[in-house]
Amino acid sequence: HTADAQRTDLMTITRFVLTQQSNHPESRGDFSILLSHIVLGCKFVCSAVSKAGLAKLIGLAGETNVQGEEQKKLDVLSNDVFIKALVSSGRTCILVSEEDEEATFVEPSKRGKYCVVFDPLDGSSNIDCGVSIGTIFGIYLVEEDQEPTIEDVLQPGKHMLAAGYCMYGSSCTLVLSTGTGVNGFTLDPSLGEFILTHPDIKIPKKGKIYSVNEGNAKNWDGPTTKYVEKCKFPKDGSSPKSLRYIGSMVADVHRTLLYGGIFLYPADKKSPNGKLRVLYEVFPMSFLMEQAGGQAFTGKQRALDLVPKKLHERSPIFLGSYDDVEEIKALYASEE
Ligand code: AHM
Ligand code: MG
Q1: If you measure from the C-alpha of residue 51 to the centroid of ligand 2, how many angstroms do you get, rounded to a whole number?
Q2: Mean pLDDT of 70-80
């Protein structure tokens, strides 16, 4: 019976969000329209990424396309697609993308009440070798009937209404939270629909994996150094943790969410604020972690409490299983 139900009763992401939002009829239509435009962007990027290797081979003859334009790089192309999809949804007013120095203010006739912050194609150094990459996004709501300003997006992560990512890996997986837990959807290519495959994701309370670029160890601060030392040489009789590092945030965070453990991009002497961007990398991932029962910490505070001052601000980040993040918090606390 169950198997039959799985085959015939398809919980698409649109149906899921509509059902979930049925308590908020006022936002129901608008949010699902916005989401369907984000989903369209993800499907486009998924298809483009899967053809990327091929395009390179046949692209030699056609480095310029029929209009005589140069072929766009995948990250630029992805950004263009997301910006256009989001503007045309008619539901957005401010867009902040990793690819654009300045925020995009949507013209009044196409304006809606949502701000979207996003990294259209994160981990792009992994494209050429076919390793998983992803899109990360966060959504804020603006005060209605007010002229949108940059302050509307310079908000702490805890004010986000929703956040998610789409991973372009061995399958295309979209993980979403609208503030009531975390759910994962997998693209069924034959239907072109994201189907609920990972309902109510909860991160294990403690994990066996740590994930960090250890090549930076020479420049780490005390607590990070001590923490990683503990992962490798635990003194409490527990087994050492495994190290997994893809170098693609979406893939590293996705594994952390499903298997448990901790993902770190700490500060170091060369980059005192770490590498990852607050608005469209740190916040959405921290939002998802908390919604899944984990934690996210900057080395100073709860990540979602941070108030960004600049669009492309960076912050150190430690996120993952509740107990594992508790340990790094204790190490920072004992430093003070
Ligand atoms: P990007 O936005 O230039 O792609 O950089 C972000 C990526 C993340 O996906 C990943 O977590 C991190 O950079 C890896 O950095 P490093 O190569 O320093 O370990
Ligand atoms: Mg990025």
Answers
A1: 21
A2: 83
